[in-house]
Design a protein that fits this description.
- The chain is built from 26 helices and 22 strands.
- The protein has 4 domains: 37 residues; 96 residues, Nucleic acid-binding proteins (OB fold (Dihydrolipoamide Acetyltransferase, E2P), Beta Barrel); 237 residues, no CATH class; 250 residues, Ribonuclease Z/Hydroxyacylglutathione hydrolase-like (Metallo-beta-lactamase, Chain A), CATH 3.60.15.10.
- It has 704 residues and is α/β, with parallel strands linked by helices.
- Helix 19 links the parallel strand 10 and strand 11.
- Helix 13 runs antiparallel to helix 16.
- The chain has an 8-stranded mixed β-sheet, covered by helices on one side. It has a 7-stranded mixed β-sheet with strand order 14-15-16-17-18-19-20. A 5-stranded mixed beta barrel has the order 1-2-3-5-4.
- The protein is 48% helix and 18% strand.
- It is globular and about 95 Å long.
Length: 704
């Protein structure tokens, strides 16, 4: 007996030892791969001719985006020259085609604004290290691969169906929904329903299992068939991490069942997590990957809590609650916003999408006569989501959390769900304090936001005394024909400015100050006001141009007060001075020039003011020893006269300018004039942040 126990112990010990060795190896290799993966590429930056096989592509307006295999996975962007070229490529291009491409290879941009979406890391999560800006493209060889042929046939069939975006999403895993619809789902906290994961895999495998059981009662054979289908489905969906997780979970859990292996589901999901990070450590930057594992782990771990409730709706509520609560740190870190309405919203949308929209979408693919039914359920889904998204009372904004705050959230959430009552109170206290963090902050901030060729500056006063945005930037868009318009493009305000404001914990602007009516200074103002709360707007002196008149109509419609040609603005103990001299013939010199002192540090924002206005400012105002100067007119030679610069003596000069802009800004002579100061440029340094705390100035940049 003793001998048998010893042998059993040794066997277990060997297993434990082997697993410990495996775990240690994986934990060493993951950070090693993480540190070495990015900089190593099989492509040189001077390469300009490429032979690639298309693995995925998307046509949106005048833009063609291709993911392809060459020496390594790579992304190529091409802009159609005309409608005929677009139609030709649209007709002929297929997955698996071999392409001859010429173009310029680049390293993807890192984020150039604080707390913003990092495009480089996102591409790394897809194993893409380089992108090509394409000059010319031709199909060298048509696809001959059987699997790609099946994929191409599937895509063609989907494209013929009305509401194909949903069928494409459910079958191919690609979200090509309209941006407004996506935003609606995001606001309601139901975006996860449109990312194929465990729920969808469960429905697919359950349906296949039922169908196969009708044909054959051999469960192990049916399992092999379903597993084979899942591997094909992974190929169909381009091996999305969330689908890999769900598929592997299904396969391993069933192997455990059929071969009676005693391992927990938590153990399985943990090891799938490690395995995928070993394959690609940059999966950690993929939100789908993070959401999939975190919520799945939570639902497995707290399954006993959920199963205490026998009623379907009680179970659904607890599932929704656990999913929502565990996702709080992820939502706050990435989106800086949570909406408590999503707990209730999921009570309706989860069963509606899972048991109605998803099955109808799948069956519509096989039976086109069901398309009318898909049209109805999609209409109900979108209209309901739009209505719910208008409810803002339970939506809260949070500043970007520190690592310690995230850890506290994780601890409190875990212990709350374990029904440790004191921690429920602590979690609520943490949420309240974090939401109101700006009231506790004693830091004044001035951030020159990187928005390309234009100006956008946030002044954020300590203790939430005031939030002032100077200009909004705006990319000049040339009029486009219908075929050129992109369905999935976001405005500068939606893509950059609003997310950044939310990351600072800002839910409203006290003042929107517009230096003047040029598009690159106020072009995004309407988009900003339509999507964000603004209390008051301030214009410069002079006649309103067409763009300003259009904005005023929106302000009046929304009952937002606006003023023009003011001299000063009092905000608590701070004061903004508008350095008015006289009315000029040109719009640039009519720019609002703004002066403010923050804890003894002098800031001056020149708008697009030129040399004439600079001279008049010197004549009218006694200004010198400026700490931070936002240089006039993006460093143009029409501004920053030497006499003016010598008089005000800026310590730091900020030039807000776009990369490789067509105007040649900043001018070399201007750079020479500013040489006695420390020069920062948004095209090189990204966003430039000035923090003033206890009379000390700290400068941070976000280099792209």
């Amino acid at each position: 007996m003793l001998q048998e126990l010893v042998i059993a112990y040794l066997k277990k010990s060997k297993i434990k030892l082997l697993y410990s060795f495996y775990l240690l190896t994986v934990l060493i290799l993951i950070p090693y791969n993480f540190n070495t993966n990015y900089k190593k590429s099989k492509y040189n930056l001077n390469d300009n001719i490429f032979k690639l096989q298309t693995t995925s592509y998307n046509i949106d307006g005048d833009k063609l985006t291709i993911e392809a295999k060459g020496r390594e996975k790579i992304l190529a962007n091409y802009y159609f020259k005309n409608k005929q070229e677009k139609e030709k490529i649209k007709k002929n291009l297929e997955l698996g085609d071999i392409l001859n491409i010429t173009g310029e290879i680049k390293i993807p941009n890192d984020n150039d604004n604080f707390n913003s979406f990092n495009y480089r890391k996102y591409l790394l999560s897809k194993k893409i290290k380089r992108i090509i800006s394409v000059n010319s493209i031709e199909i060298a060889k048509k696809n001959t691969n059987l699997f790609y042929n099946i994929k191409n046939i599937t895509i063609k069939k989907i494209n013929k169906i009305e509401n194909s975006e949903y069928i494409y999403l459910f079958i191919m895993g690609k979200n090509n929904l309209d941006n407004n619809i996506k935003d609606s789902y995001s606001k309601n906290g139901i975006s996860h329903l449109f990312a194929i994961s465990g729920m969808h895999i469960s429905l697919i495998t359950l349906t296949l299992s039922k169908l196969l059981n009708i044909i054959s009662k051999k469960k192990k054979l049916n399992f092999v068939i379903i597993t084979s289908f899942l591997f094909f489905f992974l190929f169909l969906t381009d091996y999305m991490p969330s689908i890999i997780r769900a598929s592997f979970m299904y396969i391993i859990i069933n192997i455990k069942k059929y071969f009676k292996v005693n391992i927990s589901n938590l153990f399985i999901i943990f090891n799938i997590f490690l395995f995928l990070l070993l394959i690609n450590p940059y999966y950690i930057y993929n939100l789908g990957f993070i959401f999939s594992f975190v919520i799945s782990f939570a639902l497995i771990y707290f399954n006993p809590l959920i199963n205490k409730y026998k009623n379907y709706f009680q179970k659904l509520f607890m599932t929704s609650l656990v999913s929502f609560v565990t996702s709080i740190p992820i939502l706050i870190y990435n989106f800086h916003e949570i909406n408590f309405i999503s707990i209730l919203a999921n009570m309706f949308f989860v069963p509606f999408v899972s048991y109605i929209v998803f099955p109808v979408g799948i069956f519509s693919f096989f039976f086109s006569k069901l398309n009318f039914l898909l049209k109805i359920v999609v209409l109900i889904l979108e209209k309901t989501s739009n209505l719910v998204s208008e409810i803002n009372i339970l939506r809260f904004t949070f500043s970007h959390p520190s690592f310690i705050v995230i850890i506290l959230y994780i601890i409190f959430i875990f212990l709350t769900l374990k029904k440790k009552k004191p921690f429920i109170i602590l979690l609520f206290i943490l949420l309240i304090v974090h939401h109101n963090f700006n009231y506790f902050s004693n830091i004044n901030k001035v951030n020159v936001i990187s928005i390309g060729q234009g100006d956008c500056i946030l002044i954020k006063l300590s203790h939430n005394k005031g939030n002032i945005l100077i200009d909004t930037g705006g990319k000049t868009e040339f009029s486009k024909e219908k075929w050129q318009i992109r369905k999935n493009s976001k405005t500068l305000a939606e893509n950059t400015i609003i997310p950044y404001l939310k990351s600072e914990g800002i839910s409203k602007l006290d003042y929107l100050v517009l230096t003047h009516g040029d598009y690159d200074h106020m072009g995004e103002s309407i988009n900003l006001i339509e999507n964000f709360k603004v209390e008051k707007a301030i214009f410069n002196c002079g006649e309103f141009n067409d763009l300003e008149k259009e904005l005023i109509k929106v302000l009046e419609k929304k009952k937002i007060k606006y003023y023009s040609c003011i001299k000063e603005l009092n905000i608590d103990n701070s004061k903004l001075y508008f350095l008015q001299t006289k009315e000029y013939d040109n719009e640039n010199d009519n720019s609002n020039v703004i002066y403010i002192e923050l804890d003894g540090y002098k800031f001056m924002f020149m708008g697009d003011s030129g040399i004439d206005k600079e001279k008049d400012i010197l004549d009218k105002y006694n200004i010198s020893d400026i700490d931070v100067l936002k240089v006039g007119h993006h460093g143009s030679k029409t501004s920053s006269d030497k006499k003016f610069i010598d008089e005000i003596k800026p310590k730091y000069s900020i030039i807000s300018v776009g990369k490789n802009n067509r105007y040649g800004h900043p001018n070399k002579e201007v750079l020479d004039t500013l040489n006695d100061s420390k020069i920062y440029r948004t095209d090189q340094d990204g966003s430039i942040m000035f923090k003033i705390k206890k009379d000390k100035l700290q400068i941070e940049t976000c280099s792209p």
